[in-house]
Amino acid sequence: MRIPILVLLVLCAGLKAVAKVQLPSIFTDNMVLQQQSAVAIWGHANPNATMHIITGWDKKNYTLHVPASGKWTLKIQTPKAGGPYTLTFNDGSLLNLRNILIGEVWFCSGQSNMEMALKGNSSPVLNAGEIILAADNPSLRLYRVGRAANIAPAADLKGRWVESTSETARDFSALAFQYGQFLQKKLKVPIGIILSSAGGTMIEAWMSRNSLNDFPEVKIPERLDPAQAVHKEPTVLYNGMIAPVAGYGIKGFLWLQGESNRHEPELYEKLFPAMVADWRKIWKLGEIPFYYVQIAPYGGTDKTRNGPGLREAQLKASKIIPNCGMVCTLDIGMETDIHFMDKTTPALRAAYWALGKTYGIKGINYHSPELKTMQIEGNAAILNFDYAPYLTSYRKPLTLFEIAGQDRKFYPAKAIIKANQITLSSNDVPQPIAVRYAYKEWVKAELFNNDGLPASSFRTDNW
C-alpha cells in the first residue's frame, strides 16, 4: 500500500518533534539556579545523539552521549549570583532557555497555611493589598507546583517559573513569597522559591514508600479512587509533587504542616524526622537546612485532636533533626480560624533562621527561648532557659504556667521572671514535681526573648 506523501511528511514532522530536546517543567525560562554549585539538569533527547549544553555565564560547552533510552542527566557548574543568562541545548535541534538567574533557591512545602495565596480564600491575609502592591521584583522568581496525586513517582509536574509581579505574587503562597522577599532584600542576590503544597493533607501523603517502610500502621494504597479525596492518601503527594523535582539544586527547605496530624502526635514525632531524612537522601545534597513552622494554636472543639501534643512533637523534632530550625507561632494563632491571617510574622522568623544560621549574618537572633533545666527548691520550681539572656512578658502578667505535685493535678502558678530564669509557685502545690506552659489547644503566647521570639508551649511531665 502506498502512503501519501503528505501523510509521510506529517509523520516525519511528528517524529522530529518527539526527538527534540525535552526538559521537565522545572527547567523553563525565568528559572533560578543555585549559585556556586554543581546543579543537576535532566531530560529527554534524540536517542544515541551527541548533545551539547552551553552555559551562557561562562560559554562552557558540556558534551554528553544520549543513551538509547533518550533519558539523560548532567551536572553543570554555576558561578556566583548574577544574570540574566541563557542555557542552550543542542542534539541536532536547538532549545534555548532565557532570562535565567543564578542565586539562592528554596523549596517550600506543606498544607493550607503554606499554600494560602496572598489573595486569601475564605480567610484573608493580613496586609495583603500592601504586600501585593510592593511585589514587583525581577530578582525574585516563583515556581508553583501543580497539585498532583499519583500512585507511583511521576516523571514530571505542572508549573513554570515567573518573575515576581503584583499579578504573579497575588496567586502565590503568602508565607513562601514573603520568605523569599525578605531573603532577597537582605542578601541582595536573586532568589528562587519553589512551592509544592496542598491544603488538608497529612504528612504521610508527602512521604515516599521507602520512608514509610518502618511504619506498618500507615497503609499505602495500591490504587486510587477518583471519587475519594485522593490527595490525602499516603505517598501520593510525594509521588506527584516531590519526586519529579527531587534533585533540583536548592539551598534548603521550608515546611509548614501538621494541622491535619493533630490526632496522632506520637506518630508524627517519628514520621517527621523520617520524612526529612528521606527528602535529603533523594535530593543528594547532604544535610541541607530544613526549617519549619510550628503549627499555631487554634481553638478547635474536636476532642480527638491534640494541638499541644503536635506542637510538642515538632519541638522535640528540633532536637533530633540535624541542621534544622523551628519557627514558633504561639502568638499568631486564631481561636476561631485555623488559617491564621498573619503570614508575615512566620515568614520573617523563618528568614531569621536562614539569614542568621545558614548565611551567617551576625546580629540576627533566630532561636526562640527553650527550657534548659528545672530545679525544685522547697515549694518553688525554678526554670532556666536557653536562647534568651533575658526573658520578657512585655510587662504583662504570666498566666499560662501551671504547676503540679504528686497528685498530678495542675494549678495556676505564680511566675516571676529574673533574667533568663522563671520561678514558679502555688499555694496549692507545696511540693511541685512538674510544670507546664501554654499546654492547651488555644493560647496566646506570653513569654518571649528580647528579640520578640516566643517560647513554645512545653511540659516537663509525660502524663
UniProtKB/TrEMBL annotation:
Record's keyword terms, sorted: Hydrolase
Enzyme class: hydrolase
Domain of life of the source: Bacteria
EC number(s) on file: 3.1.1.53
Keyword Hydrolase: yes
Name listed for the protein in its UniProt record: Sialate O-acetylesterase
Organism in which the protein naturally occurs: Pedobacter africanus
